[in-house]
Structure formats: C-alpha cells, structure tokens
Amino acid sequence: MPSDSIEQLRAAVRDVPDFPKPGIIFKDITPILQDGALFRAAIDLFRERCRGLEIDKIVCIDARGFLFGSAVAYELGIGLVPIRKRGKLPYKTERAAYTLEYGEAEMEMHVDSVTPGERIVLIDDLLATGGTSASAVTLIKKVGGELVEAQFLIELAFLHGREKLQSEQVVSFLTY
Ligand code: AMP
C-alpha cells in the first residue's frame, strides 16, 4: 500500500483551527469518510495490518473509532466491541477514568463483551495525549482480553501519547 494511499489520505485530513476550543487544531477526518475510494483506502490500511495477527475481536472507541473499527471488523468477519463514554452502554460495565484537559471522564465497556483470553486489536481515529486509549487498554485487560496492538489512523506524535501506552504495540498510519 501504498505510499500513494498514505499521501492521499494525509492530503484529505482537514485541519480545523480552534475547534473544539481555542488553541486546538482539530484533525477532521470527514473528508476521508465522504470519499468512497479514500474511506476504502483507510479501512484497507487497518485490514492489511491485522492480517495474520489472529485476532478474535476489534474494540473501538466512542465515537470516531466506531467509524473505522466497525468496517474493519466486517472485513475480517470478526466481532466488534464499543467502548463508550460513561452512561451510554445499557448492560453491566467495567469503568476506567481518563484525564481530559480539564478534569476527568470515564469510559465503559460491557463486562461480557470479551471472552477471557480473546485476542484484541484496539482501533481509534487518532492518538493525541494517549489518555483515552490508555483507559481503553485498562478496560480490555479488566474484561480479560489480550491486547495484540492498538491501531490509529492518525498520531499527533508531538503529544507523546505513545508514552502512556508504553508496554503496548502501537501502530499509526499518518503521523504529524
Ligand atoms: P487523547 O486521549 O488525548 O489521546 O485524545 C484522543 C481522542 O480525542 C481520540 O478519540 C480523538 O478522536 C480525539 N482527539 C484528540 N485530539 C484531537 C485532534 N486534535 N483532532 C481530532 N481528534 C482529536
């Protein structure tokens, strides 16, 4: 794949300054989603990366992680598990707190969403400071999953999110 695809995807990511608050440059992936060939190219990157990893389930993070994770799980013919912000999942959950710029928030995962020992790939759109995905890793382990690797379409390397996922395998396709 194509370094061509990587460059086309990179060119499509739109920087939106001062969203959702002043000083943040938001990486908008909707131009990728709305172009059939680019959306497919993005899903193909994840799918090819997953090939041979013998994964049982994809776990993806509320909300943009769902957009990529669900298509990858469909392509691989394996199950999909959502991690959601507190209060959204209807059944019994495990919880993990994570740090936001101001204060804390919590993520949840259904207690029975993973069978102990299942091999998991975690998918989200973007790795920034790593707090969100670190809480997702905590949840996957709490429910007994074995994290094979965490995959992101985009990594903001200058925020050093990898450091929060130190003992995990981390893969990203577009690095800024
Ligand atoms: P973090 O916990 O700091 O790694 O933030 C990662 C989560 O926040 C991901 O689910 C992203 O969708 C979102 N996010 C954080 N920063 C940005 C950004 N600059 N542009 C787009 N999404 C972001």
Automatic annotation (TrEMBL):
Catalytic activity: AMP + diphosphate = 5-phospho-alpha-D-ribose 1-diphosphate + adenine
Keywords from the named record: Cytoplasm, Glycosyltransferase, Purine salvage, Transferase
Entry's Gene Ontology molecular function annotations: adenine binding; adenine phosphoribosyltransferase activity; AMP binding
A Pfam entry, by short name: Pribosyltran
Domain called Phosphoribosyltransferase: residue spans: 32-154
CDD domains tied to this protein: PRTases_typeI
Gene3D superfamilies: 3.40.50.2020
InterPro entries reported in the protein's UniProt record: Ade_phspho_trans, PRTase-like, PRTase_dom, UPRTase/APRTase
BP GO terms, sorted: adenine salvage; AMP salvage; purine ribonucleoside salvage
Cellular component GO terms held in the UniProt record: cytoplasm
Subcellular location: Cytoplasm
Pathway(s) this gene product operates in, as recorded in its UniProt entry: Purine metabolism; AMP biosynthesis via salvage pathway; AMP from adenine: step 1/1
Record carries keyword Ion transport: no
EC number assigned by the record: 2.4.2.7
Self-association state and partner proteins as the record states: Homodimer.
Entry's family note: Belongs to the purine/pyrimidine phosphoribosyltransferase family.
Role, per record: Catalyzes a salvage reaction resulting in the formation of AMP, that is energically less costly than de novo synthesis.
Name of the protein in question: Adenine phosphoribosyltransferase
Encoding gene, per UniProt annotation: apt
